[in-house]
Prior knowledge:
The chain is mostly helical. The chain has two domains: 2-179, no CATH class; 285-361, no CATH class. Helices cover 45% and strands 5% of the residues. The chain has helices at 2-7, 11-29, 40-72, 85-109, 111-122, 136-140, 143-153, 157-175, 182-186, 191-197, 204-211, 232-236, 260-265; strands spanning 293-297, 302-305, 329-332, 337-341. The strands form two sheets. A two-stranded antiparallel sheet has the order 1-4. Strands 2-3 form a two-stranded antiparallel sheet. The longest helix has 33 residues, at 40-72. The mean pLDDT is 92. Bound molecules: FE2/S2 (inorganic) cluster (FES).
Amino acid sequence: MLQQILEIDNIDAYLVIGILLLFGTIETISGFLLSSKRNKHDWIQEIGSFFALSTLIKPAIVATIFFTGSILAPKAASYLTHVNFLIVFLVYLLIDDVLQYWYHRSAHENAFLWKLHRAHHQAEEMGFFVSYRNAALYYLMMPNIWWVGFITFLGGGKAVALGLILKQLVIISSHSTIKWDKPFYQNPVLKPIIRLLERIIITPAFHHAHHGKSKLDSVSDPNGNFGNMFSIWDQLFGTATFTKSYPASYGLQNNTNDKWAEAYLYPIIKSNNEQSELAATFKKVKTSTAEPLYVALEKDTKYLFCQCGLSNTQPFCDGSHHGTKFKPLLFEGKRNGTVKLCNCKLSKVKPYCDNSHLNLP
Ligand code: FES
């Protein structure tokens, strides 16, 4: 039965559009789309990016692989049609997802890739279409799209179609405002089910935390939860933060509201706003100094300490660490009063100063 369904031409495209329509309908009925604060640049970026990805970028990558493969290794075409479907499906899906995990993680840790992925986090609302907010070049270089083309060329098209349908279902639902996992966390009987599920697939709570603005809400982890379909990679590589709550706010700490053309076509089109990371002249500079800073803190108040040395609000984080491997440190004031905080970023008791700066040359 499944095999017969997968025989239908473009079944994956039809079902992905069906999934989008389903979530779009539910978000509309629930009033979210009508009350959305998205501006025209958000809409153009999200809808335009989805159609360009589906009708231009993916087909172009797959066609390139077929063209190259038919010249270099014509005998390899259809090789996988003789291999067990389940094996092809599992190998395709697991490799696809681990490739995407590392590509996504690199996009948060590498300065250039971050500029291509920044648009995804500029969204200040979640929603099913947020899934497709990225620069065109981000998708062109996405290793798992090339992997899709490669497996399809080898004859694994049906396995790819099934994988794409399941994966898009998880990805779209984890970006949606329809938090299907919420009732599970609230019901003691259902809670064990979601606790098990979140250890396997990406749930809305897990992925919303990745889109949260700052760790200050004790829910968000914009520098973790990089998984797309499976959460196993985050658990394996130490970047998982599980939560049953949702962020207080979404987006970037230092949002420069880049226009859709700048966000989608970077580096061909750059921003005229000198504050934007997408501006030709933009440069992150080290702002930390050797001397500690004396700062008034309040008891039981949460603070985010900058560890990258690039923040413009030292010693606190302003989001400048995106595109580097650094993460801010969340801490609470222990008492009301002035404390000496590290600003050389070398202290062994961060955020507090331990006089490590005195050892600097
Ligand atoms: S600006 Fe966030 S860690 Fe430095």
